[in-house]
């Protein structure tokens, strides 16, 4: 019953998904909202839903395999950054031009599409696999995007905290200390670019002192490494650093990778934000009614019941809203049905849980 249920929810065949992935192409900021862009957006949303379904059902993740084999990861990162630039540079200008929009549906589709692209990059597309593609520069741009999003979330939380402090007489003495630690006013770079620290006076930081980073080894405990496996490489590096001789204190050439995709998007569209916004106002905020209706029908066909078929209970066959928390495969309508089915499901659940752990 599990296999038939999974097949019933599989609305995108592997052959169709492969065709969708192979035909993906890049778009520019000014092309957002066009018919061709909307067609690719709809296909990517279907790929995203099918990829999520594959992961939740522990089935063949063919969407991920096609994206990696056709080397479409840089394209997804590019499209993600294009939508982000549109949201930051074009959308605010559109709201200034059009004070009373007649429709917000198309605008919502574009804004929602950013989360779809982020979801495609999240569902099984790990950093290890991204490093296997030829154009590895996209990894730097993706990390830069994540840093901007995290910073935005933290800044919003900071503003909420400031409002709470204004409404409360109590002060949190830890906040100034945290800000001070982040700024590190006791460290600076002089005119020559050398690092200095303040110890009654500004003194240069020797190379041997920089090797004190090895003190981090005390914090890389087994629970920490289990939760963040990527720190294992740092642990090996620190172990190697602790037994090696300090390198000579001479200036060496340092090469640093920097994000280039977003900068190229900004450079290409410089001084064009007003023109793009004016065109997109008529395309999104004051659109043709018939076009909105056609897009709404496509949205319903993608996210409606035809695709998101409800799961069925393994015991009574009714609509299920809960599933086993251990294997996350079997669905149930209630706790009672899950208890009734536990004798049958227990060996299967243990085997699935063991295979997931391996």
Give the structure's gist in a few sentences:
The chain is mainly alpha-helical. The protein has 16 helices and five strands. It is 60% helix and 4% strand.
Distance between the termini: 25 Å
Count of separate DSSP helical elements: 16
SSE pattern, N- to C-terminal: HHHHHHHHHEEEHHHHHHEEH
Give the fraction of residues assigned to helices: 55-70%
By helix and strand content, what is the structural category? mainly alpha
Number of strands: 5
Largest sheet: 3 strands, antiparallel
Radius of gyration (Å)? 26 Å
What's the arrangement of strands in the largest beta sheet? 1-2-3
Q: Quote the average pLDDT.
A: 76
Shape, principal axes of CA atoms: flat
**Uncertain regions spanning at least 5 consecutive residues:** 1-10, 166-177
Q: Indicate the proportion of strand residues.
A: under 5%
Description:
The chain is mainly alpha-helical. The chain is 60% helix and 4% strand. The strands form two sheets. A three-stranded antiparallel β-sheet has the order 1-2-3, with no helix packed on it. The chain has a two-stranded antiparallel sheet with strand order 4-5. α5 packs antiparallel against α6 (105-122). The longest helix is centred in the middle third of the chain and has 30 residues, at 137-166. The chain is flat, with a radius of gyration of 26 Å. The model is unreliable at 1-10 and 166-177 (pLDDT under 50).
């Amino acid at each position: 019953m599990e296999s038939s249920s999974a097949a019933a929810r599989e609305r995108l065949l592997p052959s169709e998904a492969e065709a969708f992935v192979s035909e993906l192409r890049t778009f520019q900021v000014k092309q957002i909202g066009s018919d061709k862009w909307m067609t690719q957006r709809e296909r990517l949303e279907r790929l995203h839903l099918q990829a999520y379904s594959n992961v939740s059902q522990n089935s063949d993740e063919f969407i991920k395999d096609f994206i990696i084999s056709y080397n479409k990861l840089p394209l997804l990162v590019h499209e993600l950054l294009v939508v982000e630039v549109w949201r930051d540079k074009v959308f605010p200008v559109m709201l200034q031009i059009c004070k009373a929009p007649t429709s917000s549906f198309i605008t919502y589709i574009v804004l929602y599409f950013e989360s779809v692209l982020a979801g495609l990059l999240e569902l099984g597309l790990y950093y290890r696999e991204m490093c296997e593609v030829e154009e590895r520069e996209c990894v730097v741009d993706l990390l830069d995007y994540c840093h901007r999003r995290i910073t935005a979330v933290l800044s919003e939380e900071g503003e909420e905290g400031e409002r709470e402090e204004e409404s409360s007489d109590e002060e949190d003495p830890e906040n100034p200390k945290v800000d001070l630690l982040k700024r590190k006013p006791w460290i600076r770079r002089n005119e020559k670019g050398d690092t200095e620290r303040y110890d009654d006076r500004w003194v240069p930081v020797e190379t041997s002192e920089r090797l004190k980073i090895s003190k981090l080894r005390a914090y890389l405990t087994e629970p920490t490494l289990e939760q963040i496996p990527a720190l294992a490489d740092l642990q090996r590096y620190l172990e190697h650093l602790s037994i090696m001789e300090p390198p000579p204190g001479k200036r060496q050439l340092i090469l640093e990778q920097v994000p280039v995709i977003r900068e190229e998007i900004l450079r290409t569209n410089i001084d064009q934000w007003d023109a793009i916004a004016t065109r997109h106002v008529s395309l999104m905020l004051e659109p043709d009614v018939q076009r909105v209706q056609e897009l709404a029908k496509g949205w319903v066909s993608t996210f409606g019941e035809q695709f998101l078929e409800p799961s069925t209970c393994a015991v009574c066959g009714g609509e299920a809203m809960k599933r086993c928390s251990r294997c996350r495969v079997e669905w149930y309508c209630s706790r009672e049905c899950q208890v009734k089915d536990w004798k049958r499901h227990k060996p299967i659940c243990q085997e699935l849980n063991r295979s997931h752990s391996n």
